[in-house]
Amino acid sequence: MAFESGQIRTLVTRLAAIVGGLVLLSLLPGFVDAYTLRIATGALMWAGLACAWNIVGGYAGYISFGHSAFFGIGAYTTAILMQSGIGAPFFVTLIPAIAVAVVVAVIIGGPTMRLRGAYFAIATWAFAEMLMQLVTVVDFTGGTAGLSLPAYLNEFFFYYTMLAATAASFLGVWYLIEHTRFGFRLKALRDHEPAAEAMGIRTNLVKVQSFALSAAITALFGSVYAYWTTFIDPHSVMGPEITDQMVVMALLGGLGTIWGPALGGVLLWVVNRYIWATFGDTVIYLPILGLIIALVVLFLPNGLISLLKGGSERGHELISRIIRKL
Amino acid sequence: MDLFLQTIINGVLIGGILICLTIGFQLTFGVLHVIDFAVGGWAMLGGYTAYWLVTLAGMDPFISIFPVFMLFALIGRGLGPLIYHVRTSRYARPDLMALAFTFGLFLLMRGGALWLWSYNTRSVESVFSGEFLSIGAVTIPLLRLSAFIMAALISLGLFILLYRSRFGMAVRALAQNREHAGLMGVDVKRVSSWVYGIYTGITASAGVLIATIYSVNPSVGVRYTLFAFFVAVLAGLGSVGGVLVAGLALGLLEAFVSTYIGARYSLLIVFGVLFLTLLVAPKGVLGRGI
């Protein structure tokens, strides 16, 4: 492929920005205290989770309200395999965790993604609720009492593991969506499904592939999270709040963009921690999330990232739109 | 045999309330083409409002249904134009944006209720509470029977409104074809907003009945959204008539599961049936859904 000089220049700038960003992020633990490092680790995780949700919600155009199920599948697979009876090493447990999530995603997505988006949303949401109940009923998950993992108290290890997982997710998704046929097919079916089908794209296959990819990344973060917190119970890794946050972060940052979910994820996680530190709990965070979703849908459907891209012009347009609404 | 008969009666009585919970939701989908995630949230808020009316004003919950209906119909009528705006906007996927919008509303209600009223469960007492009607070996709690009758009356009222009034004719025309109804002189935005208002009123009233039979806390909304979805999918999204069959079916299913298998498996089995329905008959039992 022959590049124009302008293209090469933008490519080099982008690569330099990505490498520079990664270097800065990997130097961060040298400058901050343990508390801030934990917040940074969480911010990386939520940015990665929002990015995973965005594959289905933003690029495929199918809203999933059940991603907490995949987060929980990852967390529970790792936790169960690391119990003293089995004692598998952490990195080995990632493979079955991702495999289970992919299989479940294909089983759930296969039949429901053929139907209209609303059915998919209902099915994923109902599935997540059901799975959470199943986990509290059966024995090998520890029921409502939860499971403890072997404690590994090394904040640096988790920061770098999370950084690697997040960077791999973003670069992987960026490459797959923006530079492969899979990505073009996905965007084509989001924009006009019958037309994409008429062009010879096997839309059902592409949709299920995207759902499986999204589920795999979500499960990966679930695994790392379980090892990081060393204790999990059904509500902490499968509760609806996990899905809620993923949806809001992707929506606020900008659906169907690469960097939007990163922006939304980091921003909201910092707000979450701030509320937690100020009020001692995060109950008020839930209504705030709900309000943000409603306001973003009404006034800023393309997310915060659209403000950055269009610069001041878009901002003026938005402000005048809000004034007109009032 | 007695247990079997008792289970059937319990199932039918609960089924009637589930019909009342879902019928407005179906109407909204049929007219506005919006899946309202907040359906359980409206029911939860209705239950809380009844609790306050009972505690502070000393009203019986069955009387409090009338002010609850009016209040929530007005709130819904106020929100209706916003929902209509999102659904008919020129976003990339207006249907999914509307879904996300109601998801946000639901989160706002659930989180707001948790924040304001904490996790405490509140029960609503009626004059019928604790009274029984015995026929042979079968006992019917008077409370459930009167709640069933109330739910049936509300649903009947909706059908009369839909099939015996000019407004109902406009609503049915909208459900058939929005553009053509508009050309025939129906004020699409106004009628759609009123439909949303009627839906929120009916759902909040169903919430009063549910709170009186069981109790109310901020997390019940999730459960009732799931039940409403189940009934709607089984009926076929948008099919108002199918709700009558599907509501009774879910009521019976729940009663049989809690009697013979155990209440903690009810969500599992509900989901299993939901998933099978999506696989086998995505248009619903009557085959008329969209």
Structure explained in plain terms:
The complex is a heterodimer of chains A (about 325) and B (about 290). Chain A is mostly helical and about 325 residues long. Chain A contains 15 helices and two strands. Chain A has helices at about 5-25, 35-60, 65-80, 90-110, 115-135, 155-180, 180-190, 195-200, 205-230, 235-240, 240-255, 260-280, 285-300, 305-310, 310-325, and strands spanning about 145-150, 230. In chain A, strands 1-2 form a two-stranded antiparallel sheet. The termini of chain A are far apart. The mean pLDDT of chain A is about 80. Chain B is mostly helical. Chain B has helices at about 1-30, 40-55, 60-85, 95-115, 140-165, 165-175, 180-185, 190-215, 220-235, 240-260, 265-280; strands at about 130-135, 140. In chain B, strands 1-2 form a two-stranded antiparallel sheet. The chains are: A mainly alpha (about 325), B mainly alpha (about 290).
